[in-house]
Design goal:
Pathway: Cofactor metabolism; retinol metabolism. It catalyses: all-trans-retinol + NADP(+) = all-trans-retinal + NADPH + H(+). Its EC number is 1.1.1.300. It comes from Phodopus roborovskii. Helix 5 runs parallel beside helix 6 (about 195-215) and helix 5 packs across helix 11. The longest helix is centred in the middle third of the chain and has 23 residues, at about 140-165. The protein contains 11 helices and 8 strands. The radius of gyration is 20 Å and the shape is globular. The N and C termini lie far apart (about 75 Å). It is an alpha/beta fold and about 325 residues long. The protein has helices at about 5-25, 50-60, 70-85, 100-115, 140-165, 195-215, 245-250, 255-260, 265, 270-275, 305-315, and strands at about 40-45, 65-70, 90-95, 120-125, 165-170, 225-230, 285-290, 290-295.
Length: about 325
């Protein structure tokens, strides 16, 4: 009987160590217990994955939650799920298609008209490594949704956020930004051969640069903005990569996926932390890897690149440079 004790002990130790390592890699739960009663939160792409879990976490803390999604059937279902699980009746679905400038403007106008305040904006929605698609307005889809859509939405809501200060903006980027480069000669991949991975990395680098420049512009307003890498999660975001449908991935890499891939619930913890933590009220312009502040890539720290990207983005989406967040003025060339 004793001869089995050592193997069983070793197996137990390995399993226990693996679980602890997974918890460490995943980053753990949001350490803040702060609640947000009376505060209005907008979460884009909240019908599934990290966005839905972020909305649920913030609904648990008493927030007035707006789920902003393209697919209203799924969005309404998600809102119903969250209301049922949290018993918070203040969870609503609203239409927002980040691949359409028209839809973004309509959503922002509705929020400005109907909401007394906006305390937290979580720019969560994303497209990852899709085919060479373009948005309604002719932008490369990943750059258009991940960066330009949120760039316009945030600027249109800035006056409301300032009026609600202290308020927060959270931009979901990715560790992939370190491999990104902003190609100002061809931001929308009109001339060079399309590279789905490079396009994704560029879009996520743009998110960090936008965060840095927006933080600079918001100094003294009481509005903070930070970017984060939530971790690699088991969500629908990776559906275009082929990893989830590959038999090789499932059987050969399955144990590594289990260890390194977060659940949507764990991946939502950094967004929740940045949205509610009292100790982060005055922290702005930073990049977080999970729950920890971290230096982004060198290009993400380049102030000149950030300023130039802001100007290019404002031109592309037709943002009135003179009036900042008013969103009125020049039309977008199709």
């Amino acid at each position: 009987m004793n001869r089995f004790l050592l193997p069983v002990s070793v197996v137990g130790t390995v399993i226990g160590g693996t679980v602890l390592l997974k918890d460490y890699v995943a980053g753990g739960a949001c350490p803040s217990k702060a609640t947000i009663p009376g505060k209005t939160v907008i979460v884009t792409g909240a019908n599934t994955g990290i966005g839905k879990q972020t909305a649920l976490e913030l609904a648990k803390r008493g927030g007035n939650i707006i789920l902003a999604c393209r697919d209203m059937e799924k969005c309404e279902a998600a809102a119903k799920d969250i209301r049922g699980e949290t018993l918070n009746p203040r969870v609503r679905a609203q239409h927002l298609d980040l691949s359409s400038l028209k839809s973004i403007r309509e959503f922002a106008q509705k929020v400005i008209k109907e909401e007394e305040r906006v305390d937290v904006l979580v720019n969560n929605a994303a497209v990852m490594r899709c085919p060479h698609w373009t948005t309604e307005d002719g932008f490369e889809m990943q750059f258009g949704v991940n960066h330009l859509g949120h760039f316009l939405l945030t600027n249109l809501l800035l006056d409301k956020l300032k009026a609600s200060a202290p308020s927060r903006i959270i931009n979901l980027s990715s560790l992939a930004h370190v491999a990104g480069h902003i190609d100002f000669d061809d931001l929308n991949w009109k001339t060079k051969k399309y590279d789905t991975k490079a396009a994704y990395c560029q879009s996520k680098l743009a998110v960090v640069l936008f965060t840095k420049e927006l933080s600079r512009r918001l100094q003294g307003t009481g509005v903070t903005v930070n970017a984060l890498h939530p971790g690699v999660a088991r969500t629908e975001l990776g559906r275009h990569t082929g990893m989830h449908s590959s038999a090789f991935s499932s059987f050969t890499l399955g144990p590594f996926f289990w260890l390194l891939f977060k659940s949507p619930q764990l991946a939502a913890q950094p967004s929740t932390y940045l949205a509610v933590a009292e100790e982060l009220e005055s922290v702005s312009g930073k990049y977080f890897d999970g729950l920890r502040e971290k230096a982004p890539s060198p290009e993400a720290e380049d102030e000149e690149v950030a300023r130039r990207l802001w100007a290019e983005s404002a031109h592309l989406v037709g943002l009135d440079m003179a009036h900042g967040s008013s969103g009125k003025g020049q039309s977008l060339p199709r």
